[in-house]
Design goal:
globular; alpha+beta; ten-stranded mixed sheet; 20 helices; 20% strand; 37% helix
Length: 596
């Protein structure tokens, strides 16, 4: 009769000696689906010294709380190091038993309140299975991007002067382990939680930016014309930004040579699996293509998409206006915006599955005309033609060889060039009259296309214009946070760093929106708000409760703008403690009574 398997066997911890090191390990079994055979893999949860003191390792530190709790350690082992983990602390005020500390805390306190208000801390706890150790470490790294002044190499030094959520020093090796343990599953779990916080018909802008990299080990690093005009390889970072909540809700990285139009299908695929329902996507002209329009129609995705006026169906409507003096007579004017507009209903259908035909629902073209814009574009056209002509005349006179075909086509776009293909010497040139006439006719016009939304042209334009707010997101990422360069070398490390950057952007965008709407007159930037709060300190003494220094001046105004309660005893107003022993104040002194 075979022995019954022990259900606790996969969780019993034992010592495994390898190359002189003592590891606390388990050997869970897995069944190969092809052969049906059992395979055992060894997991090292940490190390064990000669006194049987268990020191948690990488696997234990980043494991979910449920998985930790299943482990069965031998009797007699010293597990005191486990009790120090924040993920295993019991509720209640921690007792300080270390040394006297006097650290900066105001900016960290403000970001902690923002983390609670945005729900990002609660979401991270769910993502990491209740692991407070992991959550606090990620929050600390995210806050450092907003409050710190250098790269992660100075992280541990910063923790000595600032009271961060994570108490242990975040050294470079530990940060590397942490970021490499953040997986794609963690990313998708966080996106699902953030998607659940959105309202119906939320306006979400989709845009990308390039990020340079020092090294070349990452797979997504590719050549390309960098938006920052730096001679470095780059990746493409896409972000979906909610225009009503003023914060990012989705992110993904692409290879640096990927056009925006080719990334949209992947973005929509991710958004669908992350649970983004009933959102209206707003994209610029870089995402416009017939393929993307058909994807929108197939997925029944409401959208507002910037449209090039050079597109055939748009140019057809512009040509239909004929010659006009001030503006096309068929267009109406909006007195407030001082631009002219007209809306067209478009018909488009695609082939679905099983020979079904899908028709576009409320597909509309919104065409606009701005006379002031037309004047500026015509002047710019004349300036460009003159500058190109002078340059070509000099090349013809000096007989200097031309650049490659792609460069000269971009540099002399309004002229037709006649040159020797072998020597690259210019023979002559002439103005491209057809191209110039088309440019003049399109001057002052701009357009967008809407699908599955009921919006008049001016409402659609107002929604589309909100997309400019997303540019501030990228400026904050590359400026204040110093994330304009990628300083990691591994794919797994990049996944973790982007995850932390996304968390930091949620904190920063919430902070930036409140500053803009309520504190714009007093503070010019996010850094100014954090700098004003930073001098508040957290003072710790052994075996006593921590003490927060008073909130004064504009620090109080910041708390009022955010709606955050100042910690007890730190507000400028003193609250008298009432008692039941009688009236407040000093008791009367006994008086001497003199009788006649």
């Amino acid at each position: 009769m075979p022995r019954k398997p022990d259900p606790d066997a996969p969780y019993r911890v034992a010592i495994h000696i390898d190359k002189g090191y003592r590891y606390a390990s388990t050997q869970p079994a897995t069944v190969d689906p092809n052969t049906g055979k059992r395979k055992y893999r060894r997991i090292h949860w940490g190390t064990v010294d000669d006194n049987n003191r268990f020191v948690p390792g990488r696997a234990y530190l980043f494991a979910p709380v449920e998985e930790r709790s299943k482990l069965i350690f031998p009797e007699g082992w010293d597990l005191s190091e486990i009790e120090k983990l924040s993920g295993n602390r019991k509720r209640g005020r921690p007792v300080i038993e270390s040394q006297d500390e006097n650290r900066l805390y105001g900016d960290i306190w403000l970001l902690e309140q923002i983390a609670e208000a945005t729900g990002i801390r609660a979401d991270l706890l769910k993502v990491f299975g209740g692991n407070r150790e992991m959550t606090d470490a990620v929050m600390t790294l995210a806050m450092y991007l907003l409050c710190g002044k250098d790269t992660y190499h100075q992280m541990a030094s910063w923790q000595r002067v600032a009271k961060a959520p994570y108490a242990k020093p975040l050294t470079s090796p530990y940060i590397t382990m942490l970021t490499q343990n953040i997986t794609e599953q963690n990313r998708m779990d966080l996106l699902r939680l953030r998607a659940a916080r959105l309202e119906n018909n939320e306006l979400c802008a989709v845009d990308s930016t390039s990020r340079s990299a020092w090294g070349d080990s990452l797979s997504d690093i590719r050549y390309g014309k960098n938006k920052d005009h730096l001679p470095l390889a780059q990746t493409l970072e896409v972000v979906v930004y909610t225009l009503s909540g003023h914060m990012p809700v989705y992110y993904r990285t692409f290879a640096g040579n990927t056009p925006d139009s080719r990334s949209l299908e992947t973005i929509l695929h991710d958004l669908d699996h992350a649970g983004f329902k009933d959102v209206i996507l707003i994209t610029d002209r870089g995402y416009e293509s017939i393929r993307n329009l058909e994807i929108y129609i197939d997925k029944k995705q409401p959208m507002i998409m910037g449209t090039k006026v050079g597109q055939k169906h748009v140019r057809k409507e512009i040509d239909a206006f004929g010659t006009f003096d001030h503006h096309p007579e068929e267009m109406e004017i909006d007195p407030k915006e001082r631009i002219y507009y007209k809306q067209y209903d478009l018909e488009y259908q695609i082939e679905g599955r099983r020979d079904n035909v899908k028709k576009a629902d409320r597909l509309k073209l919104n065409l606009y005309f701005d006379p002031m814009r037309r004047s500026g574009e015509l002047i710019d056209l004349d300036v460009a033609i003159k500058a190109q002509k002078e340059s070509l005349e000099k090349l013809l006179k000096d007989q200097f060889p031309l650049d490659d075909d792609i460069t000269i086509k971009r540099a002399y776009c309004y002229f037709k060039l006649d040159y020797n293909e072998t020597t690259r010497l210019l023979k002559g040139f002439s103005l491209d009259e057809k191209k110039v006439d088309r440019k003049k006719r399109e001057a002052g016009f701009f357009a967008n296309t809407t699908l599955q939304i009921d919006a008049d042209p001016m409402a659609a334009q107002q929604h589309y214009r909100l997309r400019d707010e997303q540019e501030k997101y990228f400026r904050m990422m590359k400026g204040l946070m110093g994330a304009d360069r990628q300083r990691n070398w591994s794919e797994s490390g990049k996944t973790g760093r982007l995850f932390i950057l996304f968390v930091a952007q949620i904190l920063g965008c919430y902070l930036g929106n409140i500053r803009k709407t309520k504190l714009n007159e007093d503070f010019d930037s996010i850094a100014d708000v954090l700098g004003e709060m930073r001098p508040i300190r957290y003072i710790e003494h052994p075996n006593t409760k921590g003490f927060i220094t008073p909130f004064i001046g504009r620090q109080v105004d910041i708390c009022e703008a955010f709606g955050f309660d100042i910690p007890e005893g730190c507000a400028p107003e003193y609250v008298v403690r009432k008692t039941n022993k009688g009236k407040r104040g000093r008791p009367r002194k006994n008086q001497l009574v003199v009788k006649d």
